[in-house]
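Re: [ENG-882] Designed sequences occasionally contain unexpected residues at chain ends

Forwarding the minimal case from QA. Structure tokens:
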């Protein structure tokens, strides 16, 4: 028994303290949750990731320790840079440790296998470094990419390619899941900006330096100089060291690296950085906030303390994602609750493999839902998952220069290329930019400051091999002569001068050599052009400069520049003098429809004048036959001389004035046309219809070696009826002989040849329809050649200036500008379409006059129409017609005539009276 009060007080304090400790221990009870971590701990930056994961848990529970009941317990496994090692680690964690989630694995190849294992066990896999787009295409429910998907950066890369106008780019990637996963997305993005991928360079992860060198030499032999590198740091470092050694880091080359290399430049040694000078890159951008800078300071202090052998440890965005992914997992596990943390064992046989023996997590569905709803502001920015993918962030564009990389701009999905991100805050418009002016100045490989054009000529270290046709005729266009003393070929002609003028306008040197190619009826232009297509594989020709026509079937194999000549294929035939000497030549100035129209209007005008005059004008009175004759006589006589009959009605006078004007124009036009027919030489084609040639079986000619032979066969000509010609003289000789004497009746050729041929024989031949459309002559280059666009622009510069005119005068002379004889033929007969306006006016005025006359007549005869003396409509009609046919005695013209008649009768009586008085 304790009687001392002090001892009693001490005992009371002791038990109170003990009770408080027990209560605190009860309140601070936590629930451990096993979480696996799979990293390659033999690599330095993987150790950095593990430190970031541990620091994330320490910082998280330091803030939320009193609120959260769960605690993540990490179990780390070393994948040892091996897919099998990662799979074994994942199997051990799920089967033996029964982890509820796995952070990692680090690579896309390792994740590809673990994804299926996680789906089967319902264990979420959260990787902050496996970025292959193909992983997301698996559409599984238990894989979360806490990193930027590689498919998001291809748009940034394609924007750079478009900004500098590069038309081709070659992906250089590691041949595994990580490298191949981005290629389809990269090609689609490049095609969207009209950039072509002529080749894909896949390098095996374990390739030796010699194998890498062989692949780089292959790239060096190509025209393309833009390379997009997507591979791991180990392989990428070796690649650039070898590229610098063989001279591929010199001016003219363009290297763009993805974030797989751009984010780890700080981990590369100085020799690798020196070999990468001038390289462009893209990497996710994380703003340098106060939280980020504070974390970097704390991390370096902690990491160096735990790893004293490490001199420095710089952080990148992957480290921040590792930190934020761990935080997200801790938040999601707490939210998912603490029930059902066990694994459900499956009933499997004793002979089952280890892959079939692990159980299924009951906690998995709740954790998956919680992870999908996670949303917080982490060190890397706003951290949330959308369909298992981390929301994309802006990309920073860097330029390797000096000891590291410097930022030259940014790319965002909304605005494209921009110089600074903070300019978007005050921007009121959202314009997508693909201009290189949005980027800071760039130092290119070889310390070049000018923008590389993205390709180089010549290929394979040789000069450009240009094929030219060697033929006998049409030397004005192209002529190949052999120098016996030097055994070399001299090439000249219109096509050669045009090409060389075009080359002078190019903004760069284009060394080339001409190589003659024999042309005959068996070795056609198609064969020559096809050699360019084969040149991609057999080094035949790199281009063709010739009088080669742009054709659809040829465009399947090669690319053409813009045409530099006229287009079209036409038929040419001899002409004959067709001066009209027959008795019916007077009918030819007008077409038959104009003759009919004039006759009808003469009759119509005569009828109108008779209607308007016969009631008030005695000259249009008399028997019916006499009235008809007078009306026609009056109408037709206007055409040749003034009419004898006078017209008294104002309406008739208006009609006659209009008709006289029309007749004047008709007679003058007829006289001019007839004069032309009788005096001008008429050169008419001997044949005007292709079908007529086919039916008659006539022989036709074609340009030897050209595509016109195939065109004629398509039209239906028998091959036995086709005769080739190779010179202008042979062409003329075949026409002179004629189809019956070993010659031809007609010939088909392109407009450029026909124009020159007609200039020499303008009085003997002409072209006739139909004219078949073609696109003219163009220069030939391989499919997708970047030279096509530059040469086409230069062609416009030549054809739009005085240079083309001088070249044409040099080779074709003034003859080439003389008019086509077919256009100097006499005009055709005149038709109704030339005078329909006059006929319309005349007819309208005449009908209006008739309408006015009819209204006035009905008004005058209204008493007859309403008279009760007529019992039927027929009687009224007969009475009206009688009044219409008879004289209008009330007219002042008729009254004047009656007075004159009475005066005449009185005078006659006075004269006769004396006679009557004479006995």
């Amino acid at each position: 028994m304790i009687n001392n009060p002090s001892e009693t007080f001490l005992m009371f304090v002791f038990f109170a303290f003990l009770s408080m400790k027990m209560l605190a221990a009860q309140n601070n009870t936590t629930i451990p949750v096993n979480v696996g971590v799979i990293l390659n701990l033999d690599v330095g930056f993987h150790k950095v990731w593990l430190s970031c994961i541990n620091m994330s848990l320490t910082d998280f529970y330091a803030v939320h320790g009193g609120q959260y009941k769960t605690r993540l317990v990490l179990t780390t496994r070393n994948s040892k840079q091996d897919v099998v090692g990662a799979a074994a680690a994942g199997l051990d964690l799920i089967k033996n440790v029964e982890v509820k989630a796995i952070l990692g694995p680090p690579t896309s190849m390792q994740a590809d296998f673990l994804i299926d294992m996680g789906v089967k066990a319902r264990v979420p896999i959260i990787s902050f470094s496996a970025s292959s787009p193909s992983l997301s295409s698996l559409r599984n429910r238990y894989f979360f990419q806490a990193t930027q998907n590689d498919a998001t950066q291809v748009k940034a890369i394609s924007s750079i390619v478009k900004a500098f106008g590069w038309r081709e780019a070659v992906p250089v990637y590691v041949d595994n899941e990580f490298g191949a996963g981005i290629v389809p997305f990269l090609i689609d993005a490049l095609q969207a900006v009209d950039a072509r991928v002529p080749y894909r360079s896949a390098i095996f992860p374990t390739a030796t330096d010699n194998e890498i060198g062989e692949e780089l030499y292959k790239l060096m032999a190509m025209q393309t100089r833009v390379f997009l590198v997507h591979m791991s740091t180990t392989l990428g470092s070796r690649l650039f060291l070898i590229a610098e050694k063989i001279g591929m880091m010199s001016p003219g080359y363009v290297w763009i690296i993805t974030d797989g290399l751009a984010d780890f430049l700080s981990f590369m040694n100085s020799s690798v950085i020196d070999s990468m000078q001038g390289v462009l890159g893209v990497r996710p951008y994380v703003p340098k906030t106060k939280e980020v800078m504070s974390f970097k300071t704390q991390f370096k202090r902690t990491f160096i303390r735990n790893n004293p052998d490490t001199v420095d440890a710089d952080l990148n965005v992957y480290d921040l994602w590792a930190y934020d992914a761990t935080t997200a997992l801790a938040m999601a596990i707490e939210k998912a609750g603490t029930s059902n943390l066990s694994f459900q064992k499956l009933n499997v046989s004793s002979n089952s493999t280890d892959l079939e023996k692990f159980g299924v997590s009951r906690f998995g569905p709740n954790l998956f839902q919680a992870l999908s709803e996670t949303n917080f502001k982490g060190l890397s920015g706003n951290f949330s998952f959308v369909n298992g993918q981390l929301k994309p962030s802006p990309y920073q564009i860097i330029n390797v220069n000096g000891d590291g990389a410097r930022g030259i701009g940014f790319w965002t999905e909304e605005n494209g290329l921009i110089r600074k991100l903070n300019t978007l805050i005050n921007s009121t418009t959202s314009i997508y930019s693909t201009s290189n002016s949005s980027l800071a100045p760039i130092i290119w490989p070889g310390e070049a400051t000018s923008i590389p054009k993205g390709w180089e000529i010549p290929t394979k270290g040789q000069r450009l091999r240009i094929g030219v046709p060697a033929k006998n005729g049409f030397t004005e266009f192209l002529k190949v002569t052999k120098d016996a003393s030097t055994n070399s070929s001299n090439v000249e002609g219109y096509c050669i001068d045009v090409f060389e003028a075009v080359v002078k306008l190019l903004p760069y040197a284009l060394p080339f050599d001409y190589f003659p190619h024999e042309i005959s009826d068996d070795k056609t232009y198609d064969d020559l052009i096809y050699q360019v297509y084969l040149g991609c594989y057999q080094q035949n020709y790199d281009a063709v400069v010739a009088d080669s026509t742009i054709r659809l079937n040829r465009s399947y194999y090669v690319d053409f520049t813009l045409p530099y000549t006229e287009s079209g294929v036409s038929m040419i035939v001899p002409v004959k003098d067709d001066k009209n000497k027959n008795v019916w030549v007077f009918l030819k100035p007008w077409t038959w429809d104009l003759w009919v129209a004039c006759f009808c209007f003469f009759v119509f005008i005569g009828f109108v004048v008779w209607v308007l005059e016969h009631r008030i004008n005695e000259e249009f009175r008399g028997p019916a036959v006499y009235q008809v004759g007078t009306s026609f006589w009056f109408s037709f006589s206007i055409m040749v001389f003034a009419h004898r009959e006078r017209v008294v009605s104002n309406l008739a006078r208006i009609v006659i004035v209009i008709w006289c004007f029309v007749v004047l124009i008709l007679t003058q036009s007829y006289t001019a046309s007839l004069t032309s027919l009788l005096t001008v030489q008429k050169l008419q084609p001997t044949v005007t219809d292709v079908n007529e040639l086919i039916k008659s079986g006539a022989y036709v000619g074609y340009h030897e070696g050209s595509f016109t032979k195939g065109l004629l066969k398509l039209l239906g000509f028998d091959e036995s009826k086709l005769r080739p010609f190779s010179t202008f003289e042979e062409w003329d000789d075949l026409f002179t002989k004629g189809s019956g004497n070993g010659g031809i009746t007609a010939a088909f050729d392109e407009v450029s040849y026909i124009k020159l041929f007609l200039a020499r024989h303008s009085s003997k031949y002409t072209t006739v329809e139909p004219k078949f459309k073609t696109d003219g002559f163009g220069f030939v280059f391989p499919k997708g050649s970047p030279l096509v666009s530059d040469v086409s622009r230069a062609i416009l510069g030549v054809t739009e200036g005085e240079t083309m005119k001088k070249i044409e005068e040099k080779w074709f002379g003034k003859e080439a500008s003389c008019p086509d004889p077919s256009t100097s033929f006499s005009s055709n007969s005149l038709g109704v379409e030339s005078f329909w306006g006059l006929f319309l006016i005349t007819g309208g005025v005449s009908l209006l006059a008739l309408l006015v006359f009819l209204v006035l007549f009905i008004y005058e005869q209204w008493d007859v129409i309403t008279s009760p003396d007529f019992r039927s409509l027929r009687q009224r009609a007969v009475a009206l017609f009688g009044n219409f046919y008879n004289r209008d005695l009330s007219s002042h013209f008729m009254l004047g005539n009656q007075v004159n008649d009475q005066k005449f009768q009185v005078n006659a009586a006075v004269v006769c009276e004396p006679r009557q008085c004479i006995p």
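QA comment: On inspection the terminal residues look reasonable. The CA atoms of residues 311 and 781 lie 56 Å apart. Proposing we downgrade this to a documentation issue.
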